[in-house]
Design goal:
By secondary structure, the chain is an all-alpha fold. Helix content is about 60%, strand content about 0%. A two-stranded antiparallel ribbon has the order 1-2.
Length: about 325
Amino acid sequence: MNRFLEEMSGDSGADEAFDDGDWDTVDGEDNYDWEAIFRLPVFGRMNAFRISGDLCHFVALIILLRRLQKAKNAQGISLRTQELYLLVSVTRYTDLLTTFYSFYNSFAKLFFIAVHSIMVYMIRWNAVISASYDRVQDNFPSWKCLVLPGGVLAALTHLISGEWSGVDLLMNVQELLWMFSMYLESVAILPQLSLLRRYRVIENLTGNYVFFMGLYRALYIANWIYRAYYEPGYRHHYVVYACGILQTALFTEFFYHWLVSKMRGGELRYGDEGDIEYDCDVNEMRTYENSTALLENSDIRTRGSSSGDAQPEEEDLLVV
């Protein structure tokens, strides 16, 4: 089994207690091994770190999707990052068409593709939401600096690794696309982080989305370490490790600012250079209802801009 299939299934080929179907006597006793339950065919062979990482991934996407649905506003959200994540999902999960691993595995892959597709559609084509999307600020050169280099690195890695030898064309294409998705996912958050740096204060729900996306990958690193120690026959994927560490490292500074804001109960600031702000007190966005009310006005202003627009007085700000 090549590394593409192992990573997609979460299975290193090791023998498990469920191979004989006697799932209620895993430890030789008549009780339940809850970690082992997640290795039933419904879930595939998974551990608590991977389950936790996937839950964080689910939570992050649901938070952002609900924010778009409730607030009808895309301020502070990078369409470029969502398009990159959609490209990651589509290129990584080509095995949906060829291989079945478990119900959970298939559901998760379809969920990620569907949610990213919906969010890209909402930001790009929904009339109300698209009107609030700031195309000028969301200008990270993602295709030139992220997609193209990722494709080149994937091709070189695939060629050097020798994985293509003795494998049919379909498997070669899947392996190449999977490698590309690993490189691309490691940097796909950059447009979103670049956009958030330009905001003086970050809206609460978008901040939570970014935090859980970073936590998801950090937990996957723990998943890889666990599997390396406890799964006999587990094969190390050093490119995957490097991509995971890079991806988590990109979130490190944001983690710090997010945790500080939560401990102090104050505003979420990502760096000090941001000069874009909402026409309201975004620090009060703590519920979906507040977010909806506060984001009804999609206009944003930039301090010190040359437009000559007067800054609103404090009493003009919407207070919830």
